[in-house]
């Protein structure tokens, strides 16, 4: 009888050891996955910080509205002046318009 108890007990211990090893393997897989998630979270955080730094500059673009308006006015003035000069040159050289400006 005691020998049977020891045999059953030993089989139970071996079974428990196998189950424990299987659980430890699963724990190792979970820990490795958690480590990968942590690495991705760190990369995401760094990327988000970079995006935030780049987007922060957008607020300062409002200050460029007045200079851009001035540039538009200057371009309009230059366009009108260029057209006027072309008309004047065209009136001085009547054949230039027929030859395509050459």
Describe the model:
The chain is an all-alpha fold. The chain has one domain (2-91). Helices cover 86% and strands 0% of the residues. It has helices at 2-56, 65-92, 94-98. The protein is rod-shaped. The termini are far apart. The mean pLDDT is 89.
Structure annotation, total helices: 3
Hey, roughly how much beta strand do the residues contain? Answer: under 5%
Number of domains: 1
Distance between the termini: 120 Å
Which value, in Å, is the CA radius of gyration? 41 Å
Q: Classify the secondary structure makeup into a structural class.
A: mainly alpha
Low-confidence stretches: none
User: What is the total tally of β strands?
Assistant: 0
| Series of secondary-structure elements, N-terminal to C-terminal | HHH
Approximate shape = rod-shaped
Overall pLDDT score = 89
Helix fraction, binned, reads: over 70%
Q: Biggest sheet, open or closed, and with what strands and sense? A: none
Write the layout of secondary structure elements.
Elements: H1 2-56, H2 65-92, H3 94-98
Looking at this protein, list some descriptive labels.
102 residues; mainly alpha
Task: Summarize, please.
By secondary structure, the chain is mainly α.
């Amino acid at each position: 009888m005691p020998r049977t108890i020891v045999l059953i007990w030993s089989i139970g211990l071996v079974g428990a050891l196998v189950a424990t090893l299987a659980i430890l393997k699963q724990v190792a897989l979970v820990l490795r996955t958690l480590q990968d998630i942590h690495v991705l979270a760190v990369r995401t955080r760094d990327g988000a910080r970079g995006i935030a730094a780049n987007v922060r500059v957008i607020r300062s673009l409002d200050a460029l509205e007045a200079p851009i308006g001035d540039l538009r006015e200057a371009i309009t003035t230059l366009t009108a002046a260029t057209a006027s000069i072309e008309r004047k040159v065209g009136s001085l050289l009547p054949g230039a318009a027929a030859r395509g400006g050459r």
